[in-house]
Amino acid sequence: LGVGLVRSSTFLNCISHHTPPLTHVNKLVLSVLAPKYQNIFQASIQNPRFKFPGAPTPAFIITPESAVHVRAAVVCTKGLGLAVRVRSGGHDYEGLSYRANEPFVLIDLVNLRKVRVFPKRGMAKVQSGATLGELYYWIANRTKTHGFPAGTCPTIGVGGHFSGGGKGTLTRKYGLAADNILDAIVVKADGEIVNREAMGEDLFWAIRGGGGGNFGIVVEWTIKLVPVPSKVTLFSTDEIEMYDGGTDLFYKWQKIAPMLVDDLFIRATIYITGIEYLSTVKVSFNGFFLGTTSELLSVLSAAFPELGVMQKHCRESSWIESVKAFNDGYKEGETIEVLLDRNHYKTGGPFKAKSDFVTQAISRKRLKAIWQVFLDIYPGMMILDPYGGMMDRISEFETPFPHRKGTLYSIQYYNNWSPMEAADEKKNLNRVKRLYNFMGPFVSKNPRASYVNYRDLDLGVNGNGGYNESKRWGESYFKGNFERLVKIKGKVDPENFFRSEQSIPLP
Ligand code: FDA
Predict the structure, then answer these.
(1) Residue 188, helix vs strand vs coil
(2) In angstroms, rounded to a whole number, what is the distance separating the alpha carbons of residues 163 and 298?
(3) Residue 116: C-alpha distances to residues 89, 113, 124 (Å)
(4) CA 294 from chain center: how many Å?
C-alpha cells in the first residue's frame, strides 16, 4: 500500500490540522483504499503509455479546493518525507505529473477550476485545474471581442500548459500564453502562499515558461485577454502528395508562413497514407485568420497563391467556434459546450513525441531525403507550426521560453499506436527516435532546441550524470535561460522538494 496505516492517520491528522475547521478531510484526501481513488487517478492520464499493470501509483491523492488546501498538502507531504507530483490536466507527454520512481503524493487540481472573466478590464483569473476548453468557453460566454492565445487542444490543463509556454493559433499575433500573464498565486515549497508582489520578479519570471513541477504549485493565474474580431476564418487545403507538387509547396511554406501578416497562422501536417509499398507522404495545410474569408483570400492571393486556397476551403465563424473546429472540424449538431468536456478529446493510444525548431529553410533535395526516411519508418506524423510575427518581437530572455527571433517553425514528431500493440512499444518508440536522429543536420544546433511542453526524457534526465547531464536537456529547452532557472530554483526550493527526472536541478 506504499505507506502503512500509521502514516495514513498521521497524514490525515496533519491535513486536518492545516485546513480550516469543518474541512471534510476524508473527501479531500484519498488513500489507496478509497472508492474514488482509481477513478480520480486514471481520469487525467492522457498518455495510455503509462497505464499498465504495476505502474507506480500515489500513496495518497489530494484534491484541494483552495490555496490553503494546497498549502496543507505541501506541508504534510513534506512532513511525511514523501515526494510530490502536481497534476492539472495530465497531458505531460512523459507522465511526470502522475508517476514517480519513489513513494509520492499526488496533488490533483481537478477541483480548482474556477474561471472569472472581467471584460471591461480586459483580464481574467483562471485556476490551474481548469482546461483550456473551459477557459476559452467562459471567456466567450462573457465577451465576444476577447480571446486568449494558448494551445489548440481543449483538454490541456492550464497549470502545466502556462508553466511551459503554451502556443496555438494566436501565437503569431499575441505570443504565448506565458507572455500574457499579469499575476499568479503560488504555493511555495515552504508552504508560503504568494502573489506576484510577494514572490518577486525572479520567481514570477520562472513560472512563465520554465516548465511545470519545478518552483511551486501555481494555484491561479491572472491573464491579459487579447482582442479578436467578430469573424475569423479557418481553412484546410486538399491533401497533396509530396511527390506531386507537395515538396515545392512545403518548401515555399517554410519561407513564407513565418513572414506572413501576424493575423494569419498556417500549420503544415505531414503524414503517410496508404498501406505498405503503396504508401506515400502527403502534406495538408490548416489555417486560422483573424478576419473574414474575403480578407484572407486577398492576403493569400498576394503572398501565397500557390497554396490554392479558395472560398470552398474556408469557413467563417466566431472565434470560439473556430477554437472547437481547429481541433476536430465543424461537426453538424455539435455545440461549443463540448469544450467543457474533459474527456471529449482523449488521445487514441499510447504515444511518443519529440520536438525541434528550424532556423533555416530545408532544401528541396534534403526534404526528399526526409520523406524517404519517414516512409521507411512508417507510420507517424509531423506537425509544423510557423513562428515569426509577435514571437520575433519578444526577447529570448523576457521569459524562460527562448525560441524566438530567428525561429522559422517548430516540428513535432508524433507516433501513436494501438493499445493492442503494447508489446511493440519499443519498436514504436524507436521509429520516432530514428526520424529525430535523421533530422539532426537540418534543425537548430548548439544546442539542438526542444519545447519543454513536449517533454522528452530521451534528452536526458537528472541523476548520475549530475549537473552536466541536466544541463544537456535544460539548455535544449531553455538555452541561456537555464542557468537563471537553476539559480532561482536554489533560492525558492533549496531542499529540492519539487523534483522529477527533468526538474530544474539545484545549483
Ligand atoms: P500536467 O498536469 O501533466 O502537467 C505538466 C507538468 O506541469 C508536470 O510536470 C506537472 O507536475 C506540472 N504542473 C501541472 N500543474 C501545475 C501547477 N499548477 N503548478 C506547477 N506545476 C504544475 N502544447 C502547446 O503549447 N500547444 C498545443 O496546442 C498543445 N497540444 C497538445 C495536445 C495534446 C493531445 C497533448 C497531450 C499535449 C499538447 N500540448 C500542447 C502540450 C501541453 O502544453 C503540455 O503537455 C502541458 O504541460 C500540459 O499541461 P497539463 O496541465 O495538461 O499537464
Answers:
(1) coil
(2) 37
(3) 19, 10, 6
(4) 33
Nearest C-alpha to atom 26 of ligand 1 is from which residue? 151
What ipTM score was computed for the predicted complex, to two decimals? 0.99
Signed CA dihedral, 55, 58, 61, 67: sign only: negative
For atom 29 of ligand 1, the residue with the nearest CA is: 151
pLDDT in tens, 315-358: 999 999 999 999 877 777 789 999 999 887 666 789 999 999 99
Nearest-angstrom CA–CA distance, 420 and 433: 21
Nearest residue (by CA) to ligand 1, atom 44, is 453
Query: Which atom of ligand 1 is found nearest the CA of 158?
Result: 51
Stated pTM of the model: 0.97
Nearest to 146 by CA among 232, 229, 227: 227
Residues 6+ apart with CB under 8 A from 456: 93, 94, 353, 354, 355, 450, 473
Q: Is 347 in the pocket of ligand 1 (CB under 6 A)?
A: yes
Per-residue cell: 195: 502573489
Is residue 95 within 8 A of residue 50, CB to CB? The reply is yes
Contact at 8 Å (CB) between 476 and 436? no
Q: Whose CA is nearest to atom 49 of ligand 1?
A: 160
**Cβ–ligand 1 contact at 460 (below 6 Å):** no
How far apart are alpha carbons 108 and 35 in whole angstroms? 16
**How many A from CA of 91 to the centre of ligand 1?**
5
Ligand 1 centroid, distance to 324 Cα (angstroms): 19
The residue nearest atom 33 of ligand 1, judged by CA position, is: 153
Ligand 1, atom 1, lies closest to the CA of 90
Helix (H, G, I), strand (E, B) or coil at 283: strand
Spatial distance between the Cα atoms of 290 and 305, rounded to a whole number of angstroms: 19
Grouping H, G, I as helix, E, B as strand and the rest as coil, residue 27 is helix
Q: Supply the pLDDT for residue 1.
A: 43
Helix (H) or strand (E) holding 235: strand 232-236
Q: What is the rounded distance in angstroms from the CA atom of residue 199 to the CA atom of residue 103?
A: 29
| pLDDT tens string 136-149 | 999 999 999 999 99
From 62, 91, 114, 186, mutation site for ligand 1 pocket: most ligand atoms within 8 A of C-beta: 91
Residue 284 backbone phi and psi in degrees, to 5? -140, 160
Report whether 270 contacts 384 (CB < 8 A): yes
CA gap 105, 273 in Å, rounded: 44
Q: Which strand (E) or helix (H) includes residue 315? A: strand 314-317
**386: cis peptide before it, omega within 30°?**
no
CB 286 within 8 A of CB 265: no
| Residue 160 Cβ < 6 Å to ligand 1 | yes
3-class SS of residue 155: coil
Q: Is the dihedral of CA 150, 154, 158, 164 positive or negative?
A: negative
Cα 165 to ligand 1 centre (Å): 9
